[in-house]
Amino acid sequence: MDRDLHQSQTNSARAGSLASSSSRSSVGLSDQGDNAPRAESSYQSSRNSYANNLLQSRTVLLPSRTASNEQLSPVNRERSSFFPNGTSPNLHQTGPRASGSIQRQPLRRLDARTQSLSGGEELPAKSNGSYGRGPHRPSNTTGLRPQWAEWDKICLRLYGLPLNTTTFDVWSIFKSHGELVSVELFERRSGEREGSGRIYFSPPPTKQFWNDIMRVNIQGRRLEIRVELQKERKPPQIHGSSGKSYPPTMTLTMDAMEFGVLSRENEMMPLKTIQNSMKAGFSLTAELRPKRLEVAFACKIDDPRRENPSMQHHSPIGKREHIQEYKAHIPFTHLKKIVFIDIDENSWALLIPLPSPPIFYVKHDYAGSHSSSKNTWYVQDAWDRTVDITYDTTWFKDEPVSLPRTNQFIDIGRWTTYRLIFPKSTLPSWEEMKAALIDFNIKVDYTTSKQFLTVPAQVTSLWDQLEPQKPDISESNNLALLANADDIQLPYDVRYQLEVCISQGLLNEVDITAEFLQKLTNLSKDRTRRRDRAKDLLMYVSRPRIGSRTEDREKLDEKRIYNPISLFEDKKAMSHYPEVSIPEHCQWVRKVVITPTTMYLSSPAPEPSNRILRHYANYEDRFLRVQFTDELMKGRIFPAPDHAKDNALFNRVHRTLQNGIRIGGRHFQYLASGNSQFRENGAWFFCPTDFLTCDNIRNWMGDVNHIRIVAKYAARLGQCFSTTRIPKSSPIGQTIKHIQDIEYNGWCFTDGVGKIAPSRAKFLVQNLNMNMSVTNIPSTFQFRLGGSKGILVQWPDVPFNEVHLRPSQNKFESISKGLEVVKTSRYSVATLNRQTIMILNCLGVPDVVFEDMMKKQVANYELAMEDPQVAMQILSKYVDQNGVTTTIAQMIADGFMHAKEPFFMTILQVWRAWSMRLLREKARIVVDQGAFVFGCVDETRTLRGHSNRTEPGDRNCDLLPQIFLQVPKAGIKPGEAAEYTVITGVCILGRNPSLHPGDIRVVDAVDVPALRHLRDVVVFPAVGDRDIPSMCSGGDLDGDDYFVIWDPRLLPEEWNYPPMEHDSLKPKELKRDVRVTDLISFFVRYMKNDTLSTIAHAHLAKCDALNEGPKDAQCIELAGLHSNAVDYPKTGQEAYLKPSLRPKHFPHFMEKAPSKTYHSKRILGKLYDQVAKVNFKPQLDGAFDERILRRYALEGDMLKTVRMIKRQHDKAMRQIMNQYDIGTEFEVWSTFVLSKPRIGSEYKRQESMEPVIINHRERFREACIKVAGSRDTEVLYPVIAATYLVTWEEVQMVLAKTQKEGRERELTADEMPFISFPWIFDCELGHIATSKGEFGLEEVPKPTMALLDDDDANDDDEFERLVGAGVTESDNGVTNNGHGFEGWTLSSTNTAQPTEVVEEQEVNEEVVELEEEEETSMDALAKLEGKM
């Protein structure tokens, strides 16, 4: 025994040494390649070989589950995939994680004395299949066959395992006894294993192999363990909507599976057929608990060189041929319809058409699917994600990503129609499955093989036609030139739009003929500067849609065009016209979404500009915004730091960044990532020219070569991609004056703060909004200036032409010297959230305070829906970040709530639903005695700072640090001039997110006359032992927002809790210059290892579960990890979340899986239970406001032109809704978005939507103003009233059509007309409605008897009218801003009448500013950015 123990310790030491070496080894370039040694047959040797290869091989980005590349199948090679140009990012980390995350099995050397890891010896029988153990247990047998043999699965409980036992050890012992499907090792609360576990077999073994006591070998030790059979636990039945119960899984065995596309509505073109030649591994399973279908199949992938000898590759033919198992998961929500096809007397089929690819998996060896750092193993762990079904992934490792994929055995990204063929013997089982599917709202249609056809596969020549091979001139001479005369030559923007249609499934290659391409080419030859009819036609095809039309609902693919040539006979398609011009601070941006198996292109959309796009505006169409996501049905790619199951996804991202993207004949290369874009897995790409490369652009951005930290280097480049607006330059030039930071004890009190003159601040605002009158100048501007960033604060001592910057603001040197504005200071109300509530609660604020506040808020929302005065009061107090509530309050003051105006009433409902949703899901309690504002510093050094002498718990107000805060006085009615008040007294102050009890500080707000010029900002002291912002979740002053609350109910009992003290991870610094390959590797590593949201969720769950809440040591550790995770994009050092900090169960308010949920009795659980879900559904049954409809008598010509602008407006609104995954126009208009984003965080979604809707409004406001030809209210207001009238007409026509058809059902999203168009002029509509002048009409006019979409016959003429009005660019690129819409003017009787053409001189004299409401502080930024 001693000898065995000594040998075990020796082996363990070797394993630990090897694992440690492995964890320190970065995965790099290959020195061995295909000459790596072949794996030994035994698994012991395989484990040694795996460890050695991990140390020696430099070919793999991500770890393989097998020992040697010689035995790797193509999909196995994907786990150890080569990276282009021999580079690979080190996705695996040093330190404690490495041995667990890199090792797929314990790393341990074995010698001859260690015989086996599996196969336990049985001792003399002491029990015979009875529950528990011991001879006195009652037997549980039926005749010779034990009862447990009839169960679906059995569970064996194991006792006496060594503490260092791994799941691999247990699996090795029991794998030979049956279908072992899971291994669990139990651990104590401390995270240490307790020496017991359990295993499951499904189906049960054929015979009993276990006894109460078994003798086994574990890691070289021979020992005894105790085994108990557990009682049967039958899986619960699943209940359908009809009340009928079903088994959790139902399976059908397939004979064959076909992959292909729909060639017609009743035809499928199979492009690959897989036969079930092995009579195993082919099945369709309905999994009712996760609500999905699983399609499993196996295939042998033949070497493509057998059929095509012209293909060249150095590897021997057939070397990689093998049989591989795959499966696809299809969520029920992704299924529109399944079609049953009766083929013949022997077989039947199911047709499954999908709008986008499902999730595909490939099976690997079980042995390699274990991890020594995990306490569980499931059979599913052997299934990894795959992005290709191909012979060898390395064959296209250097190719750019493109829509057509080469070397694909099955193109799983494009062939998304499946035909599953079954024997007739499976029909009874199918009937049961069908009943369940119908019960889960999946439609099943019936047809026969005569009605639904399969057609032979055809190889498309589309891509060859678009990029024909250049002939050899030396051989074919002039004949080659003549032959090429009719080649398809589509301009880039037309071809890009064609690929948009193909990528979105609107067109398919199998339907696109040479005739179609030639017609497209001919149509494009007549292009002008302002119009290319070929592009316009394709823009019509790809126009944004919301929902589906009634007539398309029964189609298998409701958006597909099967006969593209028919588009040339479609009047609507042929008369489609270009977009309305966009504001000068926006640019057209093309976006591409890269998924694991395909890519989706979007039509160009207007987006706020940035420094790079402005400077290289002439190369606008060569920039590409790229987003990396999972398949559309799944959303974002989730980080996977602890396992290799998703490595294929990250490998595809790396290959895309490394090799680039090919679209429309252009090759786009990785450029850089904006900082917010980086966090959402996005990047900018650029297509180089002969004179401009990506390196040229990066060099122009600034001098960052001195930065050797890859993460910081990437962040500095990203600084140039911030969305900014650039005002006119100072008329007397600009001088940059460098001033010193205020520092003490290693703390910087002025981190990110500069200064600017009040007169210069006013000049900035006026030049950002030249047509807006500004009465309140923002105190603070968040800015970019060359390589500097941060905020600029008004100070009277600064000269007009000077900008004062500090060293903390200067990040790098740059050629660009223009001052760019990101946003300005504004006031919004403070709100609590789950983190701040937990912290305040643990610091002594009672539960009842939060409960009372929430009850009052819910009651206020209910009253606000009925009482205009209450609504106005609440909206004025609960000011959101974008100031939308003040706009809604003004609409109430204008009488729209009294009139029950449908758009207003819907916006009010959206506000309530949004507020209630955030109350329930985020505990977002509004604190009206609070503010959410920028932070800046007291340059006068008057305010008292923090003192380290202050003891925790000391409640002496005279020792508190001081702040200054001046905000709008409460109770200001809409339209009234804002009055400001200085807050005084004890307050709490913090920054989101706050996870540590010391993140929320108690401060003393005081009045300092020298600071009264500063409004809507919190001013921090510039003196003391430590700056206050850094104590608030590590904040600074470069644009961070802080909440200040002076509600006495929320003052905690415990003051001055020590701030979080932890050492930030030291950034990794290279010993050479940073290269583009380093940026690419860091991008992928960040995607894989970012654990910020995981840590935040763990912290929330632990705070609820542990008695000390946020003060518990585990929560304190998680708060430190969260801080490191926040800094990951800057330091390049990820935060490792160890298993002991991961919660096993979650409180019910986190809405996790029921099996992992408990009902919380703490404050957040109580608050969650108080708020019911509020559903929002737009209603159009209200009456439009007669005050506007009757104000003017409007002529038909003007209405016709306004209808065209509305059509463009609605299309642009649909594009925004599609781009940002938003359900309704009302959510876009208000920025109160109810749905969660597919990609990225919800935290700043409202803030990020503000520039989108501001630019949208500004774009169409300008279009209407140009149609009017003047900003004079007498000329402009009739056009605004026309926008309201044509919207009302459209609603009336749709309602009339519905009534005529006798339909009682609700309108679909696609049928419901958009009504937000006139509300781009929300203030002006209020002025029209409340005007005291006479009405132009005695009654509401009758609607025009023509729907908007039926006006296409004269679109060409109307487009020319828009060009004449300057709404779109003319051929020379100049817009006509002088004449406006020629043909009407306003008479003295409020009637818009035809008149002579207005002379240019008269029009110029009429140009005046728009009337605007009296400004409040909440409107300052909205006015600054042209929102009103």
Our measurement of the CA-to-CA distance between the termini, rounded to an integer number of angstroms, reads: 85 Å
Quaternary structure state of the chains depicted: single chain
Rough outline? globular
Q: How many helices?
A: 36
Computed CA radius of gyration, to the nearest angstrom: 34 Å
Given helix and strand content, the structural type is alpha+beta
Q: Roughly what percent helix?
A: 25-40%
Q: Average pLDDT value?
A: 81
How does the major sheet shape up?
Answer: 8 strands, mixed
Strand content: 15-25%
- The residue ranges in which pLDDT falls below 50 over 5 or more consecutive positions are 1-130, 133-142, 471-485, 1370-1389, 1393-1428
Give the number of DSSP strands: 52
Structure explained in plain terms:
By secondary structure, this protein is of the alpha+beta class. The strands form eleven sheets. Strands 22, 26, 27, 28, 29, 30, 31 and 32 form an eight-stranded mixed β-sheet that branches. Strands 1-7-8-4-6-5-20 form a seven-stranded antiparallel β-sheet. A seven-stranded mixed β-sheet has the order 24-17-18-23-12-13-25, with helices on one face. β26 (586-594) and β27 form a beta hairpin. The protein is globular, with a radius of gyration of 34 Å. It starts with a helix and ends with a helix.
Concise overview:
This protein is of the alpha+beta class and 1428 residues long.
Secondary-structure blueprint of this entry?
Layout: H1 2-24, H2 43-56, H3 74-79, H4 98-101, E1 121-122, E2 141-142, E3 145-146, E4 154-159, H5 167-174, E5 180-187, E6 193-201, E7 213-218, E8 221-229, E9 238-239, E10 245-246, E11 249-253, E12 256-264, E13 267-275, E14 283-287, E15 292-300, E16 323-331, E17 337-342, E18 347-353, E19 359-363, E20 376-378, E21 383-385, E22 401-402, E23 417-423, H6 427-439, E24 443-448, E25 453-454, H7 462-466, H8 473-483, H9 492-503, H10 514-525, H11 533-541, H12 571-574, E26 586-594, E27 599-601, E28 605-608, H13 611-615, E29 623-628, H14 647-659, E30 661-663, E31 666-672, H15 675-679, E32 682-686, H16 694-701, H17 710-719, E33 735-738, E34 743-744, E35 747-748, E36 753-756, H18 758-768, E37 780-785, E38 788-794, E39 802-805, E40 819-824, E41 828-831, H19 834-842, H20 847-864, H21 868-877, H22 884-893, H23 902-922, E42 926-937, E43 962-968, E44 980-982, E45 985-990, E46 1001-1005, E47 1017-1020, E48 1041-1045, H24 1076-1089, H25 1092-1105, H26 1113-1131, E49 1146-1147, E50 1157-1158, H27 1163-1170, H28 1186-1189, H29 1196-1219, H30 1225-1230, ...
Parallel strand pairs: 13-25, 17-24, 22-30, 26-29, 33-39, 36-38, 42-47, 43-46, 49-50
Antiparallel strand pairs: 1-7, 2-3, 4-6, 4-8, 5-6, 5-20, 7-8, 9-10, 11-14, 12-13, 12-23, 14-15, 15-16, 16-19, 17-18, 18-23, 19-21, 26-27, 26-28, 29-32, 30-31, 31-32, 34-35, 36-39, 37-38, 37-40, 41-42, 42-48, 43-44, 43-47, 45-46, 45-48, 51-52
Helix pairs in contact: 9-11, 14-24, 17-26, 20-21, 20-23, 20-27, 21-22, 25-26, 29-31, 29-32, 31-32
